[in-house]
Design goal:
Blueprint (H helix, E strand, L loop, with lengths): L10 H24 L6 H4 L18 H25 L1 H29 L6
Helix pairs in contact: 3-4
């Protein structure tokens, strides 16, 4: 098969990246020359809806929105960590099982704490 750490083995990857960047750039510039470009006042207005703005677009979101978003990201990452563990489960043995139980226990305790503190209440 050959030496996989040799610089020659990276050449196909570099070619793939170069072709992808060249095609992406080509498509963007081709679209710039093909599309119609006739801006008018309503089209250049914010939101392009034709209705006048009735308030400032910069509104403050409640802090609960960000807390729930962070909790979602945390538990989403938890599931992302479970997939490689499940794939390598047979090789990890009982040590891997105990480590995953500790990991899930910590996350469940954190979830329970957030629930009891009312962090998941939307109102």
């Amino acid at each position: 098969m050959g030496n996989l750490t040799a610089p020659e083995s990276y050449f196909p990857i570099l070619v793939f990246i170069a072709v992808g960047m060249a095609l992406g750039t080509l498509v963007l510039y081709l679209g710039r020359f093909v599309r119609p470009d006739q801006p008018y006042r309503a089209k250049l207005a914010p939101y392009e809806s034709g209705s006048p703005l009735f308030q400032d677009a910069r509104v403050q979101f409640p802090i609960r929105y960000y807390v729930i978003a962070m909790l979602f990201v945390i538990f989403d990452i938890e599931t992302a960590f479970m997939f490689p563990w499940a794939v390598a489960f047979r090789h990890l043995g009982i040590v891997g099982l105990v480590e995953m139980i500790v990991f899930i226990t910590i996350l469940v305790v954190g979830f329970w704490y957030a629930w009891k503190k009312g962090a998941l209440e939307w109102d």
